[in-house]
Please model this.
Amino acid sequence: MSPSAQVPDLPGRQDPRVDSHALGHVQGMLAYGLMLLVGVGGFLVIREIGESQFGPPVKLPPVPAVAAAKAASVDVVAHVLGTMAAVIVLGYVLGRLMRRIGQPPVIGEVVAGICLGPSLLGALSPEAMSLLIPSAADDPQGQVTAALKMIAQLGVILYMFVVGLDLNAGKLKNQVHAAIAISHVGIIVPFLLGAMLALVLHREFAPNPISFTGFSLFMGLAMAITAFPVLARILTDRGLEATPLGTLALTCAAADDATAWCLLAVVVGIVQTRIENSLQVLGLALVFTGAMFLIVKPVLRRWCARMDRSQNSSGQSPLVVGMAGALLAAMTTELIGIHAIFGAFLLGAVIPNESRPARELKQRLHESVIVLLLPAFFAYTGMRTQIGLVSGLNHWLLCCLIIVVATLGKFGGTFVAARATGINHRDAATLGMLMNTRGLMELIVLNIGLDLGVISPTLFAMMVLMALVTTLATSPMLGWLNPEFVSTENPERTRNNPEPVGSV
Model:
C-alpha cells in the first residue's frame, strides 16, 4: 500500500477532528451559560441588597379628581409647525458643524433640541421659547406637548423599523460566535455596573412608587445601550466599514441592539405591571416574537422573493406593506404591554435585508423619517431636558460618576471579551470605543424611562449628558487609536485615497 493511499474508515472509528469540534462547541456553550449565570446571579444579589436597604415602594394616596383647567386659546398647529421648522433648521446647521469637526450629525440634532428647550432658550428668554412651546399657563392641558409627543412617537417607531431593516442577519451568521460573545459580555458588564449604581442613585432619583427592582433594571439597561446607526455612520465616514474590524463592530452592534431591545421589552413589562402580571406580559411577548419568526418571516420571505423575480415596477406595494405592517406590529406590542418600538424593530428585522422591497423601503423612508419626523423627537427630548436641575457639586459629581461607570462598563466589557477571542489590544480598544457610542438609541430608552416614571427629570438630564459625552468621545478616540483613518465628508475618498496621517 502506498503512503498516499487513504485508510478506509473502520466501523466505530470517529474522526478526531469531529470530536475536537464537538468538544469546542460544548465548551463554548458552557462558557456562555456560565456568563449568563454570572450576570443573572450578580443582578439578583444587587436586587436583594437594594430591596433590603430601601424596602418596598411607598404607595402614594390617590389624587382627588380636579376639574380640568379651561384651556387657553392656543393654536396647536401653528406652535407645532413652528417648533418643527426651528428644530429642523437648527439641527441641520449644528449637524453640519459637527460633521466638519468629525462628529456624528446626530449630536448637532440632539443639541438643537436642547438649545430650543428650557435649558438654553427658556433660560435666556422664556417669552421666545413660548413662541414655540407655550408655557403651562398658556397651554394648561399641554396640547402642544401632546401633539409633539405623538409625532415624535411615530418618528421613533418608523426609525426603529428602518434600523431593523438595516440589520443584516447574514453578517450575524458569518461571525456569530465572536459577535455574540463580545456583544453579550458588553451588555452584562455595564448592566451589572448600572444596577450597582442604582444602589447610590435610588434614594434621591427614583420617583415613588418605583421599586428598587424596576429602577435597577432600567439603570442597567440604560448603561448597556449601543447606537447601531451612529456606529455605522462613524465607520463609514472613516472608511472602516468594509474592514474585518469594521464588519465585526457592525455585527456586534447589531447583536447588541437586538438583545437590548428584547431586554427593554422585558424591563418595560416588569415595570408597567405587577410581578404577578409581568409573567403574562413576557409570555405574550414570547408568543409575538415566535409568531414573527415562524409565521410572518416565511411569508415575507416568499413575498420578497416574488418581488425580486418580477420585472415590473413594484409601485407603492412595498411602502404600503411595510408602513402598515410596522404600525400594526407596533400597535400589537403596545397592547401587549411592552413598547411600540419593539414591534416595529422586529418586523424590520424579519424582512430579508438585501431584498428589493427592503431596499425600496429604506430608500423611501430614510430621508422623510430623518429629516421630518425625528426632529419632533429631538424637540420633545430637548423640552424635557432641564440641565438646570443638575445643580450643586453633589449632582455634578454624580453625573461624572454616571459617565465613568457607563464608559468603564461598555468599553471594559467589550475590551476584555474581544481580547478573550484573540483580538489584539488596539483592535479590542477600538471595538470598545465604538460600542460605547450611545447617541439616539440611548435617548429613546431614556424617554421611555421618563414616560414610565422610572427616573426623575434630574436623572434624565444627567443621563442625556452621559449619552452626549460618550458619543462625542468616540470619534476623537477612534482617530487616536487609528490615526491612519481620518474622517472626511467624502467617505469614498477616504477608502480609496487615504490622506496622510495627521491631516484634517
Remarks:
- The two ends are 68 Å apart (CA to CA).
